[in-house]
Structure formats: structure tokens, C-alpha cells
Write a structure and sequence with these properties.
Layout: H1 4-39, E1 43-45, E2 49-50, H2 55-75, H3 82-109, H4 120-146
Antiparallel strand pairs: 1-2
Length: 148
């Protein structure tokens, strides 16, 4: 039966699932951004050069820190506006894209490093950056679904 009550219950369930999905994606973004921040302390290239010592790496580190701070506020329920949702998406996407850009810069613009010059910290950061891009894409899908 398609009664107003049934439609209302369906809308409530849809909003509950959106909130649950958004919370899960916030938690994922928080964890991945924190992981990226930590990988910056690991060696990225031979000679024990960390991600903080490399130009694109330090910029992504600041974006990752911003993601962590915004997501902490959102998950604690201290900032629950649509602006917070949009900022969380934008920062997550920016951190992921800049993380992948760091790989591109080091691979093609550095000249002498080469693929064999990268060590485990770099590869961990690259995988985390790809995952941040994926989480940002999922967040965009959730945001689009809830748009008026």
C-alpha cells in the first residue's frame, strides 16, 4: 500500500541510510588522511628522504591534516551542516588528487629518481592517495543523492 505513512517511513529510511553512509565515509576519510600524514614521516626515496622533505609531499600533508581535523569535528557531531559535508568532500578529494600528483611529479619531473628509487613510504602514500580519491568519489555520490 502506498500511504503517506509508508512514503514517510521510506524517506526516513533513505535519510538514515544516507547519514550512515556519510558517517562511514567520514570515518574512512579520517583514517586514510591520518595514514597519509604518517607516511610522510617514512622514507620516500633512497637515502632516507622522507615525504616531508619533498615539495608535493608537504602540501599534501597539510591537506591531510585539514581532512583529519574537519572529519573529527563532523564525527563528534560538533559541525553537522551541509557546508561541513561539502568541505569534507573537497578536502578529501584535494588530498587524494595532490597525493597522486606527488607521484607524477616525482616520477616524471624529478628526472633522476626513477621508479626503482622509490621506497616503501612512497608506495604506501601512493596507495593511500588512490584510496582517498575513491572515498571522495563515493562522498560525491552520497552528496548528489541528497541534493535537492
Amino acid at each position: 500500500m502506498d500511504t503517506p505513512e509508508a512514503r514517510h517511513e521510506g524517506n526516513v529510511a533513505r535519510w538514515a541510510s544516507r547519514d550512515e553512509a556519510e558517517r562511514s565515509l567520514s570515518l574512512l576519510a579520517l583514517g586514510l588522511a591520518a595514514a597519509y600524514f604518517i607516511t610522510l614521516f617514512l622514507p620516500w626515496v633512497t637515502g632516507s628522504i622522507s615525504g616531508w622533505s619533498i615539495r608535493p609531499g608537504e602540501e599534501v600533508g597539510l591537506l591531510a591534516l585539514a581532512v583529519v581535523l574537519v572529519e573529527l569535528l563532523r564525527l563528534m557531531g560538533l559541525w553537522t551542516t551541509q557546508g561541513a559535508d561539502l568541505l569534507g568532500f573537497c578536502l578529501t578529494a584535494a588530498a587524494g588528487v595532490m597525493g597522486v600528483t606527488a607521484w607524477a611529479v616525482l616520477e616524471w619531473a624529478s628526472g633522476s629518481i626513477g621508479i626503482n628509487g622509490f621506497v616503501y613510504g612512497f608506495w604506501l602514500a601512493f596507495v593511500v592517495a588512490l584510496l582517498l580519491v575513491a572515498v571522495a568519489a563515493l562522498r560525491l555520490a552520497v552528496l548528489r543523492r541528497s541534493a535537492p
